[in-house]
């Protein structure tokens, strides 16, 4: 009798274990998502996102005050500018409540930090991007310990399917500086900084190793350098021996067109200056150029045998009032989707800025929209209208996933 009981118990354990999907399994299918970089996160926004067909959100808590004074904005989780002294347990509890709201809405979360100790986001650092992280092993030690502490606290949260270590790192703009990611000598610059605190690959190896000491399962998302440009994949190195890594880039190029600073000067398709140098190259941007611009990522995949399920176009978008914005979204999402990469547009019903709230179309928001924002609530659905921009996103959210090992 006892042997029968133990046999049945073993069978139940095996069945239960085999039916338990790992967090990495979530990424075995192409995922479509949105960015949530809000001042205040709400369960209503999560529910609306899921109803729209969004599957995963790239959630940043870096703007949250959670009871702090406005002067302390940016301190959530990582602490004051003076240095990291340990994760704030009140912040962790607050974050877990938001994660439960996302899970209840049917969404998964990639937790994304806009700041790390020593690399505070410019909007939370008197307008200047902090880069001492890329100049000091001591600051890197603090940032690594911060992520290890967070992973220890969050490893069992069912909503989280990724830790995005640092949004848009830019060690290239510390000293020595890479003048232009587009026309500059990326390989030559990287050879100078390899093995120093400015070496993003070195930092990533160290932070991944620290996270893996406390959490062996949660996938880790690593942005490429120079604000996550696809061109930084030329010097990005995969993490050896860890298949639970997603490699990430952002797509806002050509920035002279996609940004709100365009003010009608450039349209898409059309001739647009490209690059960061004193004399940006003016070139024709269309679907073919979008494809060429993303090729460094595909080339990197083939070189390192990295499957498409480990590539994440984590931000893509355009200022919604720019001429040709819908055509741009169509071409960029189409190219990303066709390669089998995961993607997330920026952004869904942001509470801080309407410039990339595509449900508004290309027109100014209505008085009802601004009334809701002033009152700190999600605008009612009737402030949104059918339009070409949102139509593009809706079609791609509903598109059949693409499967493939390499593009």
Describe this structure in words.
This protein has 407 residues and is α/β, with parallel strands linked by helices. The protein has a single domain, classed as TIM Barrel (Alpha-Beta Barrel). The protein has helices at residues 2-18, 43-51, 89-104, 137-154, 186-193, 200-214, 225-228, 255-258, 287-304, 325-338, 367-374, 388-397; strands spanning 32-36, 56-59, 108-112, 160-164, 220-223, 245-251, 270-274, 281-285, 311-316, 342-345. The strands form two sheets. Strands 1-2-3-4-5-6-9-10 form an eight-stranded parallel barrel. A two-stranded antiparallel sheet has the order 7-8. Strand 7 (270-274) and strand 8 (281-285) form a beta hairpin. Helix 4 (137-154) packs parallel to helix 6 (200-214), helix 9 packs parallel to helix 10 (325-338) and helix 10 packs parallel to helix 12. It is globular, with a radius of gyration of 22 Å. It starts with a helix and ends in a 10-residue tail after the last helix.
């Amino acid at each position: 009798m006892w042997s029968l009981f133990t046999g049945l118990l073993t069978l139940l354990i095996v069945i239960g274990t085999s039916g338990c999907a790992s967090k990495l399994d979530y990424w075995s299918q192409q995922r479509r998502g949105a960015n949530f970089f809000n001042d205040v996160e709400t369960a209503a926004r999560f529910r609306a996102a899921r109803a729209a067909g969004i599957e995963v959100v790239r959630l940043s808590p870096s703007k949250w005050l959670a009871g702090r004074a406005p002067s302390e904005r940016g301190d959530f989780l990582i602490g004051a500018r003076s240095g990291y002294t340990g994760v704030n347990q009140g912040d962790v509890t607050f974050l877990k409540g938001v994660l439960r709201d996302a899970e209840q809405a049917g969404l998964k979360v990639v937790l994304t930090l806009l700041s790390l100790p020593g690399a505070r986001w410019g909007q939370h650092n008197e307008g200047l991007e902090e880069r001492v992280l890329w100049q000091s092993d001591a600051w890197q030690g603090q940032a690594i310990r911060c992520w290890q502490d967070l992973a220890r606290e969050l490893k069992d949260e069912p909503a989280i399917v990724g830790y995005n270590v640092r949004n848009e790192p830019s060690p290239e703009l510390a000293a020595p500086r890479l003048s232009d990611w587009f026309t500059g000598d990326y390989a030559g610059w990287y050879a100078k900084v390899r093995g120093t605190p400015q070496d993003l690959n070195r930092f990533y190896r160290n932070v991944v190793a620290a996270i893996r000491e406390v959490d062996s399962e949660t996938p880790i998302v690593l942005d490429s350098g120079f604000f996550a440009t696809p061109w930084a994949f030329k010097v990005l190195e995969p993490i050896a021996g860890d298949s639970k890594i997603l490699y990430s880039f952002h797509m806002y190029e050509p920035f002279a067109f996609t940004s709100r600073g365009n003010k009608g000067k450039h349209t898409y398709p059309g001739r647009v200056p490209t690059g960061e140098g004193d004399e940006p190259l003016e070139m024709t941007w269309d679907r073919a150029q979008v494809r060429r611009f993303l090729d460094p990522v595909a080339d990197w995949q083939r070189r390192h045998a990295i499957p498409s399920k480990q590539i994440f176009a984590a931000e893509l978008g355009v200022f919604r009032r720019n001429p040709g914005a819908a055509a741009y979204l169509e071409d960029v999402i189409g190219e990303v989707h066709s390669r089998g990469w995961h993607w997330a547009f920026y952004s869904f019903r942001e509470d801080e800025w309407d410039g990339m709230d595509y449900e508004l179309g290309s027109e100014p928001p209505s008085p009802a929209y601004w009334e809701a924002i002033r009152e700190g609530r999600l605008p009612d659905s009737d402030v949104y209208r059918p339009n070409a921009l949102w139509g593009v996103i809706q079609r791609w959210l509903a598109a059949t996933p693409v499967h493939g090992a390499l593009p």
